[in-house]
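Q: C-alpha cells for this one, please.
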Amino acid sequence: MSSTEDNKATTRRFYESYSTGVQAAFDTSVSTELVNHSMGDAVGHGPWLQNDLAAEAALPDQRITVHEQIAEGDKVVSRWTLQGTNTAPFMGRPATGNTLTLDAIVIDVVRDGKIVEHTIVGDLGTFMAGFGS
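A: Here is the predicted structure, written as C-alpha cells:
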C-alpha cells in the first residue's frame, strides 16, 4: 500500500508531466484499468488518453500547475490550472490562437503507484468555448 505522500507525488508528477508529453504521463502514472468518471459516463484509460492526446496536439505548449493537494488513504485531491495556446484544430474546430485556461479540482484514486480512478470538476464549458464555435 502506498503512503499518502507517495500518492500525492504520483498525481503531481502525472499532471506536471503534461508539458513534456501526455503519452509518457499516462504510461508512467495511469493504470490501464483506470475508470474516468469525468467524461459523461465512466470511461476507461483509452478514451481519456485519446482525448488528452488530441488536446495536446491543439495546445502544444500546454502545462499544468498544481497549486495544492490533500490526500487521505488512496485518494488525492488536487487543485490545478492548465494553460495552453490553441495553435492547431481541435474537435473539428480550427485553431484560434487563443490562450486557454482551465482551473480544476480533481479527485484521483491511486493504487500501487498508478491512478486507477479519476474525477475532474472544472469549468469545461468556458475552456471549450476558447476553441471557438
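A few notes: The radius of gyration is 14 Å. The longest helix spans residues 45-58.
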